[in-house]
Amino acid sequence: MTAGAVKSGATYAVGVLFAINAMNFFDRQIIGAVTEPIRREWGLSDTELGVLATVFTLVYAVVGLPLGRLSDRAPRKTILAGGVFAWSLMTGLSGFARSFGQLVVARLGVGVGEATCSPAATSLLGDLYPTHRRARAMSVFMLGLPIGLGLSAGVGGWVAQTWGWRAAFFVAGVPGCCARSRRWRLPSLPAARSRNTRSGRGAGRARLTRWCSRFPRCGG
Predict the structure, then answer these.
(1) Does position 170 have pLDDT exceeding 90, yes or no?
(2) What are the pLDDT digits (tens) for 90-113?
(3) Hey, which CATH number is domain 3-185+195-212, 3.40.1390.30, 1.20.1250.20, 3.40.50.300, 3.40.50.80?
(4) Which of 37, 58, 122, 202 could covalently link to 165 via disulfide, CB atoms 3.0 to 4.6 Å apart?
């Protein structure tokens, strides 16, 4: 593969990851655009609305740790594709909720799916871009955050006002489900920089052994 093809593939990859991150924050914050209609329909208190946001944050934080470890060991493209489909599906299912409890469960599912995005995507960018270009790629990826937030407020609010809050969840969930069906292809990673090879782990152990051998009592 030529250098131009590799560069083109990396550029395409960062564009795909930017779109995924925008969908990530669109689906995450769509709840803010429909809070008042939900409150009025079910007569929710401020405490219940606070619980809705808190449970999402907690499950996102807790599940993110094992998913980050999994991203070091399993194919990150597969993890990311599964996460996009999971959070988009659960966002769409939020529109079918008939009670506060059902909506909480759906939002927990969104949190689990979205916890795959940051560890898998940033790890991919680290392998696709050399050090002197990595910050630029990360800035494009993170541009999805404000764009996703803006779309969730603008588009989500307009859809909720026009067709109801359930429709806002349906609209938010469609792009990710469609993207999963199209099977976006990210370029193959350079073998020299792969973090998941046994040889890489073996080299790390060998370096540790050599360093440890300098000290007679290092082994205990």
Answers:
(1) yes
(2) 999 999 999 999 999 999 999 999
(3) 1.20.1250.20
(4) 37
Integer CA distances (angstroms), 143 to 7, 25, 62, 139, 163, in order: 20, 11, 25, 6, 29
The whole-angstrom separation of Cα 186 and Cα 205 is 31
CA nearest 91: which of 71, 111, 66, 121? 111
Under a CB-based contact definition with an 8 Å cutoff, are residues 140 and 124 in contact?
no
Query: Tens digits of per-residue pLDDT, 123-154?
Result: 899 888 888 888 999 999 999 999 999 999 99
